[in-house]
């Protein structure tokens, strides 16, 4: 029997139509679907075949998930492993890829739309600002899970470069997020926005500053499934013109006109 294949698919931020065409086609063809039920909108499963085997991984351990992936692919099945957003951003991807490689199971990764980009779209903002915010830091916060560095380090980089930060898994510890960013040097009037369940029907957007965002978030009772956008991009006062379409700025596609 020929070995099947595992395809890691970014299911997107919530709206089932924000899965990529390639991801949807793999999902439509899959014999087995393993999806992260705690984060992936179950509406995405409408693209799966009715006869496909469906597993919710939200209550499973890594070992149990990997066992399903390897067993089903070894039986010659096409397995769709759905992850929220994009598999490469806090997707716990490595720990599932490594056992597949050890078992000789072919696999592929199909990217998706991560929550940072979906949140920006819902706010109708650009994360970068010409000449002012040219770096985007994707980071996270946590109460229990260890991480290298802290938001103090991120704040210092933001002060030095004008970068905008998008903080994942931090809204449940919003006081800690605000404290570390403040201790890192960000002023109280730094624009902050919290986007809860970006692109889901019950999405919420809370705008404020470092000084008041914690109180606003608590008032909305948001404790999970949100990203925090910190920096000028969350509430810009000035938008300089970009160089790319400036007639005074020539480049290879628009040489200097004489």
What does this structure look like?
With 258 residues, this protein is an alpha/beta fold. Helices cover 27% and strands 20% of the residues. It is built from seven helices and ten strands. The strands form two sheets. A five-stranded parallel sheet has the order 3-2-4-1-5, sandwiched between helices. A five-stranded mixed sheet has the order 6-7-10-8-9, with helices on both faces. α2 (62-74) runs parallel beside α3 (94-103). The longest helix has 13 residues, at 62-74. It is globular. The termini are far apart.
Give the strand order of the largest sheet, numbering strands 1, 2, ... along the chain.
Answer: 3-2-4-1-5
Please outline the major beta sheet. Answer: 5 strands, parallel
- Helix content estimate: 25-40%
Question: What is the helix tally?
Answer: 7
Brief overview:
With 258 residues, the protein is of the alpha/beta class. It has helices at residues 21-29, 62-74, 94-103, 115-123, 151-161, 174-183, 213-219; strands at residues 5-10, 32-35, 53-56, 78-83, 107-110, 136-140, 164-168, 191-196, 204-209, 226-230. Helix 2 (62-74) packs parallel to helix 3 (94-103) and helix 5 packs across helix 6.
């Amino acid at each position: 029997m020929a070995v099947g294949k595992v395809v890691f698919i970014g299911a997107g931020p919530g709206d089932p139509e924000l899965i990529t065409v390639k991801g949807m086609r793999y999902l439509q063809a899959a014999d087995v679907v393993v999806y992260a039920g705690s984060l992936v909108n179950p509406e995405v499963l409408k693209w799966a075949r009715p006869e496909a085997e469906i597993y919710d991984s939200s209550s499973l351990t890594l070992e149990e998930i990997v066992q399903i992936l390897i067993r089903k692919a070894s039986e010659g099945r096409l397995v769709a492993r759905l992850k929220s957003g994009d598999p490469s951003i806090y997707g716990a991807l490595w720990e599932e890829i490594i056992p597949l490689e050890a078992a000789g199971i072919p696999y592929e990764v199909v990217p998706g739309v991560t929550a940072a980009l979906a949140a920006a779209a819902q706010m109708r903002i650009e994360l970068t600002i010409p000449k002012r915010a040219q770096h985007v830091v994707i980071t996270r916060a946590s109460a229990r899970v260890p991480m290298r560095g802290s938001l103090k380090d991120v704040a210092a980089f933001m002060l030095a470069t004008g970068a905008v930060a998008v903080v994942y898994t931090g809204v449940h510890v919003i006081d800690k997020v605000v404290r570390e960013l403040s201790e890192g040097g960000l002023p109280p009037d730094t624009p902050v926005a919290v986007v809860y369940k970006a692109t889901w029907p019950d999405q919420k957007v809370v705008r404020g500053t470092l000084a008041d965002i914690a109180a606003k978030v608590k008032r909305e009772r948001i404790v999970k499934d949100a990203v925090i956008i910190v920096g000028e991009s969350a509430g810009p006062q000035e938008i300089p013109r970009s160089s790319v379409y400036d007639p005074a700025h020539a480049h290879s596609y628009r040489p200097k006109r004489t």
